[in-house]
Each structure stands twice: as structure tokens, then as C-alpha cells.
């Protein structure tokens, strides 16, 4: 497995390239993406980069879990061919990009409303990574459903020529969606966090949205719980649809979603 720090050193690859962009703190959800990429491509590339552009709070960026040595061991065991692990200085020479990507209205609702500029930061770094790696296919987790929708639109609108594939959410035995942020939950907070997947399950079973939202708010601090069109992210009563939720449990903000 080759580890590359400087994007300028990234080689031109032959055959099909599958790419999994990550911010590290890798878990079974990432493993599912890498396994899918390994199955369908000649070369698998994974990036490990905590992107400062998509964090609204400096404290959240500073507290984001980082353990590159552990991540590299994890990736080696999964048979990854190349790991791109750049520094912030390599990705944003001079302190930050002058030209960035705007995600428009799609980037200002839901997660974007709570985290202004977040999806512009995501789109900017994804565009840069795609230009560095030149993948044929890129793999994202369905847990970040809004991110998947934004990246698909990014590729379509900028003619980037990358096939975007979304892998199903990987859940722990207790039903909580796998996330790097779960590491920051105490045992009691983790139990409390299960209110979110229970709420989404209730919506999938046909429960009333307002009733489920009120019940969820009695257990955790709710940012939003909505039912939207999976492509436009507009709220809808039509089916099929996507139920999306974001909550705070202690200092940790968690997101989850479910098709209904």
C-alpha cells in the first residue's frame, strides 16, 4: 500500500479507479465502501483528510478524531492500493482557496441551514480530490444523504465524469448508524442517541411526522426531522421519500436517515 502526502506526487493510474474520500477515524461503514470499490475496480484509492472548510466551529474541527496510524493499518488490511493523506498546507497552499464551489440552495437547507457553508466546503474539497485522483467511480455512505445528493449534482453540473455510488448505512447491533462521532458518546449518551433511529423507523412504518418529532424532542435536542424528496431535498408527502434527522446528544451532533 502506497501512502502519498503531497497531491503533486499522485501518479497517473491505469485501469478503472475506485475512490473513497474520508476524513479518517475509520469504521465498518468505511469498510463497506472500500469493499465495494475493491470489487468493481482495478485500483482502490482512499483519501484521509480532515477538511477545515466544512467545519463551522473551530472546536468541532479541533476535536474531530484523528489517528492516521490506526487508519493506515485498517486500510492495509482491506487491501487498499493507494492512500492520499495530505496536510492542510498541501491541499490549501497559502492558507485557503480563493476560488471555491457554491452548492446553491441545495447547500443551504437541512444540514446547510445548521452549518452555513458546510456543503460549499464539501463540494470544494471533493472537486479537488476528483481532480487529483481522477477516479472512474467514487463511493459515499448513504448516512450522509444530503452530501450524496449534493455530490451527484456537483458531478452533473460541472461535468466531472465520475460515477457516484451510495452504499447502504452500516448500523451497529443496537441500531445506531456507524459514525466517527459515535466515539465521543458516553454509554448513557449512546443509549439516548438511539431515539433517532427509532424515530426514523416509526416514520417508515407510517407514523405521523409531527407526533414522531414531538416524541423525539422529549428525548434529545432535535435540529430537524423531515421527510423529503431524495433528489431535490424538498419536503414532500409523496412516497417513496427519505426521512432525515439530526439531533444533539450531549456535545455530539448525529445525523441519520431512512427510506420510506
UniProtKB/TrEMBL annotation:
Keywords: ATP-binding, Cytoplasm, Ligase, Nucleotide-binding, Pantothenate biosynthesis
Residue stretches spanning the membrane: none
GO cellular component labels: cytosol
Binding site for beta-alanine: 54
Catalytic activity from the UniProt record: (R)-pantoate + beta-alanine + ATP = (R)-pantothenate + AMP + diphosphate + H(+)
SUPFAM superfamilies (UniProt xref): Nucleotidylyl transferase (SSF52374)
Active site per UniProt: 30
Biological process according to GO: pantothenate biosynthetic process
Keyword Oxidoreductase among UniProt keywords: no
InterPro entries: Cyt_trans-like (IPR004821), Pantoate_ligase (IPR003721), Pantoate_ligase_C (IPR042176), Rossmann-like_a/b/a_fold (IPR014729)
GO molecular function: ATP binding; pantoate-beta-alanine ligase activity
EC numbers on record: 6.3.2.1
Residues engaged in binding ATP: 23-30, 141-144, 170, 178-181
Compartment list: Cytoplasm
Pathway: Cofactor biosynthesis; (R)-pantothenate biosynthesis; (R)-pantothenate from (R)-pantoate and beta-alanine: step 1/1
Annotated positions binding (R)-pantoate: 54, 147
Note: The reaction proceeds by a bi uni uni bi ping pong mechanism.
Similarity-based family: Belongs to the pantothenate synthetase family.
Role noted for this protein: Catalyzes the condensation of pantoate with beta-alanine in an ATP-dependent reaction via a pantoyl-adenylate intermediate.
Quaternary structure (record): Homodimer.
Name of the protein described by the UniProt record: Pantothenate synthetase
High-level lineage: Bacteria, Bacillati, Actinomycetota, Actinomycetes, Mycobacteriales
Amino acid at each position: 500500500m502506497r501512502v502519498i502526502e503531497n497531491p503533486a506526487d499522485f501518479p497517473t493510474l491505469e485501469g478503472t479507479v475506485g475512490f473513497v474520500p474520508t476524513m479518517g477515524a475509520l469504521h465498518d461503514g468505511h469498510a463497506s465502501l472500500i469493499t465495494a470499490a475493491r470489487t468493481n475496480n482495478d485500483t482502490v484509492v482512499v483519501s484521509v483528510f480532515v477538511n477545515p472548510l466544512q467545519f463551522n466551529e473551530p472546536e468541532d474541527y479541533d476535536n474531530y478524531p484523528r489517528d492516521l496510524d490506526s487508519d493506515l493499518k485498517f486500510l492495509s488490511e482491506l487491501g487498499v492500493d493507494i492512500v492520499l493523506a495530505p496536510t492542510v498546507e498541501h491541499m490549501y497552499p497559502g492558507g485557503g482557496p480563493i476560488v471555491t464551489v457554491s452548492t446553491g440552495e441545495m447547500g443551504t437547507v437541512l444540514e446547510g441551514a445548521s452549518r452555513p457553508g458546510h456543503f460549499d466546503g464539501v463540494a470544494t474539497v471533493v472537486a479537488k480530490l476528483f481532480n487529483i485522483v481522477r477516479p472512474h467511480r467514487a463511493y459515499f455512505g448513504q448516512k450522509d444523504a444530503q452530501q450524496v445528493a449534493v455530490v451527484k449534482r456537483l458531478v452533473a453540473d460541472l461535468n466531472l465524469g465520475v460515477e457516484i455510488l451510495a452504499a447502504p448505512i452500516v448500523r451497529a447491533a443496537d441500531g445506531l448508524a456507524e459514525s466517527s462521532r459515535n466515539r465521543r458518546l458516553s454509554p448513557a449518551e449512546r443509549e439516548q442517541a438511539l431515539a433517532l433511529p427509532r424515530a426514523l423507523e416509526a416514520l417508515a412504518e407510517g407514523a405521523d411526522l409531527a407526533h414522531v418529532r414531538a416524541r423525539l424532542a422529549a428525548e434529545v435536542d432535535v435540529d430537524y426531522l423531515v421527510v423529503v424528496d431524495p433528489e431535490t431535498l424538498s419536503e414532500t408527502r409523496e412516497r417513496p421519500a427519505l426521512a432525515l434527522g439530526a439531533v444533539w446528544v450531549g456535545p455530539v451532533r448525529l445525523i441519520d436517515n431512512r427510506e420510506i
